[in-house]
Amino acid sequence: YVELAELLVRPQRLFSNENIDTSLVLTPERFGSVNRIFVLSDKDRTLVKEFQLWMIKNNPPNHVEHIQDSDHMVMISMPLDLGDCLLSLAKKFA
Predict the structure, then answer these.
(1) What pLDDT score was predicted for residue 11?
(2) CB 55 within 8 A of CB 38
(3) Higher model confidence: residue 49 or residue 20?
(4) Is the separation of the CB atoms in 70 and 44 below 8 Å?
(5) Looking at residues 88-94, what average pLDDT do you find?
(6) How many domains would you assign to the chain?
(7) How far apart are CA 34 and CA 43, in angstroms?
(8) Cα(22)–Cα(7) distance, integer angstroms
């Protein structure tokens, strides 16, 4: 049981630069026709801030929103702030 517990608490990366598949082609006519918003969560320990910034740089959204002190589950850690953010974005991009 101890070995299993150690495996479960060991930090592991979900993504790596080496695992990115380049065979998928997204065109501006299709994928680019939908407004994309990225919500940056500065307390996220699953997708650390550096990786979130890498995602933004390599696939730029139309808008980046930052919810201060939010973690990976923004809807649980900052539900009121997320609600305000979504209302604001709905008005802006509707």
Answers:
(1) 65
(2) yes
(3) 49
(4) yes
(5) 93
(6) 1
(7) 28
(8) 31
